[in-house]
Protein backbone atom coordinates (compact mmCIF):
# COMPACT_ATOMS: atom_id res chain seq x y z
CA UNK A 1 0.00 0.00 0.00
CA UNK A 2 1.31 3.45 -0.86
CA UNK A 3 0.54 6.90 0.46
CA UNK A 4 -2.67 8.43 -0.90
CA UNK A 5 -2.52 11.40 -3.25
CA UNK A 6 -1.78 14.74 -1.58
CA UNK A 7 -4.69 16.65 -0.10
CA UNK A 8 -2.60 19.74 0.58
CA UNK A 9 -0.83 21.36 -2.35
CA UNK A 10 0.97 24.43 -0.97
CA UNK A 11 4.74 24.61 -0.54
CA UNK A 12 4.64 25.72 3.09
CA UNK A 13 2.50 24.74 6.04
CA UNK A 14 -0.26 26.81 7.60
CA UNK A 15 -1.80 27.34 11.02
CA UNK A 16 -4.84 25.06 11.06
CA UNK A 17 -4.68 22.87 14.19
CA UNK A 18 -7.44 22.99 16.80
CA UNK A 19 -7.68 21.95 20.43
CA UNK A 20 -10.59 20.46 22.32
CA UNK A 21 -9.58 20.80 25.96
CA UNK A 22 -10.07 17.85 28.30
CA UNK A 23 -12.29 19.98 30.54
CA UNK A 24 -14.55 21.24 27.73
CA UNK A 25 -18.29 20.80 28.17
CA UNK A 26 -19.95 17.88 26.39
CA UNK A 27 -21.89 18.59 23.20
CA UNK A 28 -24.62 16.08 24.11
CA UNK A 29 -25.81 14.92 27.52
CA UNK A 30 -28.32 12.05 27.59
CA UNK A 31 -31.00 11.80 30.31
CA UNK A 32 -29.17 8.76 31.78
CA UNK A 33 -26.02 10.88 32.24
CA UNK A 34 -24.04 9.64 29.23
CA UNK A 35 -22.02 12.44 27.65
CA UNK A 36 -20.52 12.95 24.19
CA UNK A 37 -17.86 15.47 23.21
CA UNK A 38 -17.23 16.17 19.54
CA UNK A 39 -13.45 16.03 19.10
CA UNK A 40 -13.32 16.11 15.31
CA UNK A 41 -16.39 16.32 13.10
CA UNK A 42 -16.36 15.21 9.48
CA UNK A 43 -17.18 18.80 8.56
CA UNK A 44 -13.93 20.00 10.17
CA UNK A 45 -11.71 17.19 8.80
CA UNK A 46 -12.65 17.58 5.16
CA UNK A 47 -14.81 14.47 5.48
CA UNK A 48 -11.88 12.18 6.24
CA UNK A 49 -13.00 11.08 9.72
CA UNK A 50 -14.98 11.95 12.83
CA UNK A 51 -13.88 11.34 16.42
CA UNK A 52 -16.00 11.49 19.55
CA UNK A 53 -15.31 11.04 23.26
CA UNK A 54 -18.12 8.93 24.73
CA UNK A 55 -18.60 8.76 28.51
CA UNK A 56 -20.99 6.22 30.01
CA UNK A 57 -22.47 7.44 33.29
CA UNK A 58 -23.15 4.01 34.75
CA UNK A 59 -26.62 2.71 33.90
CA UNK A 60 -26.54 -0.03 31.25
CA UNK A 61 -26.82 1.59 27.83
CA UNK A 62 -25.59 1.38 24.26
CA UNK A 63 -26.78 0.13 20.88
CA UNK A 64 -27.54 -3.49 20.07
CA UNK A 65 -26.05 -5.26 17.07
CA UNK A 66 -26.09 -3.24 13.85
CA UNK A 67 -23.93 -2.39 10.85
CA UNK A 68 -23.11 0.56 8.59
CA UNK A 69 -22.95 0.55 4.79
CA UNK A 70 -21.01 3.78 4.27
CA UNK A 71 -18.46 4.01 7.08
CA UNK A 72 -16.07 2.16 9.33
CA UNK A 73 -16.17 2.51 13.10
CA UNK A 74 -13.42 2.03 15.66
CA UNK A 75 -13.47 1.95 19.45
CA UNK A 76 -10.64 2.69 21.88
CA UNK A 77 -11.49 2.12 25.53
CA UNK A 78 -10.09 4.80 27.86
CA UNK A 79 -11.57 3.97 31.28
CA UNK A 80 -13.78 1.32 32.85
CA UNK A 81 -15.11 -1.60 30.89
CA UNK A 82 -17.02 -1.36 27.61
CA UNK A 83 -18.67 -4.48 26.23
CA UNK A 84 -18.32 -4.59 22.44
CA UNK A 85 -20.09 -6.97 20.07
CA UNK A 86 -17.63 -8.16 17.41
CA UNK A 87 -20.17 -9.95 15.24
CA UNK A 88 -19.87 -13.23 17.13
CA UNK A 89 -20.07 -12.37 20.83
CA UNK A 90 -20.22 -9.53 23.36
CA UNK A 91 -16.68 -9.11 24.67
CA UNK A 92 -15.61 -7.09 27.71
CA UNK A 93 -12.96 -4.54 26.68
CA UNK A 94 -10.59 -2.81 29.09
CA UNK A 95 -8.62 0.46 28.90
CA UNK A 96 -6.22 0.25 25.98
CA UNK A 97 -8.33 -2.25 24.02
CA UNK A 98 -9.05 -1.28 20.41
CA UNK A 99 -11.75 -2.66 18.11
CA UNK A 100 -12.05 -1.79 14.41
CA UNK A 101 -15.22 -2.57 12.44
CA UNK A 102 -15.07 -2.30 8.62
CA UNK A 103 -18.15 -1.16 6.70
CA UNK A 104 -20.74 -3.96 6.83
CA UNK A 105 -19.27 -5.40 10.03
CA UNK A 106 -21.73 -6.41 12.72
CA UNK A 107 -21.09 -4.61 15.99
CA UNK A 108 -22.60 -2.94 19.04
CA UNK A 109 -21.35 -1.49 22.30
CA UNK A 110 -22.58 -0.93 25.84
CA UNK A 111 -21.50 -0.53 29.39
CA UNK A 112 -22.63 -3.17 31.81
CA UNK A 113 -20.44 -2.55 34.83
CA UNK A 114 -20.56 1.17 35.64
CA UNK A 115 -18.91 4.34 34.39
CA UNK A 116 -16.59 4.02 31.40
CA UNK A 117 -15.28 6.08 28.51
CA UNK A 118 -14.02 5.48 25.00
CA UNK A 119 -13.10 7.16 21.76
CA UNK A 120 -15.33 6.51 18.75
CA UNK A 121 -13.75 6.99 15.32
CA UNK A 122 -15.75 7.01 12.09
CA UNK A 123 -14.25 7.09 8.60
CA UNK A 124 -15.09 8.73 6.40
CA UNK A 125 -16.36 11.65 8.45
CA UNK A 126 -20.13 11.21 8.30
CA UNK A 127 -22.26 13.74 10.23
CA UNK A 128 -22.82 11.55 13.32
CA UNK A 129 -23.66 14.60 15.42
CA UNK A 130 -27.26 14.59 14.13
CA UNK A 131 -27.55 10.92 15.07
CA UNK A 132 -26.27 11.46 18.63
CA UNK A 133 -28.47 14.53 19.10
CA UNK A 134 -31.56 12.78 17.69
CA UNK A 135 -31.08 9.83 20.05
CA UNK A 136 -30.75 12.24 22.97
CA UNK A 137 -34.06 13.92 22.03
CA UNK A 138 -35.79 10.52 21.87
CA UNK A 139 -34.26 9.52 25.21
CA UNK A 140 -35.63 12.79 26.65
CA UNK A 141 -39.16 11.93 25.50
CA UNK A 142 -39.50 13.03 21.88
CA UNK A 143 -41.47 10.41 19.98
CA UNK A 144 -40.91 8.94 16.53
CA UNK A 145 -43.34 6.76 14.68
CA UNK A 146 -42.06 3.51 13.18
CA UNK A 147 -41.67 4.98 9.68
CA UNK A 148 -39.96 8.11 11.05
CA UNK A 149 -37.58 6.01 13.14
CA UNK A 150 -36.77 3.76 10.16
CA UNK A 151 -36.01 6.81 8.02
CA UNK A 152 -33.88 8.37 10.80
CA UNK A 153 -31.83 5.16 11.07
CA UNK A 154 -31.43 4.80 7.28
CA UNK A 155 -30.39 8.45 6.95
CA UNK A 156 -27.75 7.90 9.64
CA UNK A 157 -26.57 4.60 8.09
CA UNK A 158 -27.71 2.34 10.95
CA UNK A 159 -29.07 -1.07 10.01
CA UNK A 160 -30.24 -3.15 12.95
CA UNK A 161 -29.81 -6.90 13.20
CA UNK A 162 -32.92 -8.84 14.24
Automatic annotation (TrEMBL):
Residues 62-120 form the Cupin type-2 domain. This is Cupin domain-containing protein. InterPro entries: Cupin_2 (IPR013096), QDO-like (IPR053146), RmlC-like_jellyroll (IPR014710), RmlC_Cupin_sf (IPR011051). PANTHER family: PUTATIVE (AFU_ORTHOLOGUE AFUA_8G07350)-RELATED. It comes from the Bacteria.
Amino acid sequence: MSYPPPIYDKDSGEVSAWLVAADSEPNVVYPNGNRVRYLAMGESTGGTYGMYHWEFAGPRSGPDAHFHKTLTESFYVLTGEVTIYDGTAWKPCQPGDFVHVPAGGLHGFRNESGPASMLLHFAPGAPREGYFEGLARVAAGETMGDAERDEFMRYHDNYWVD
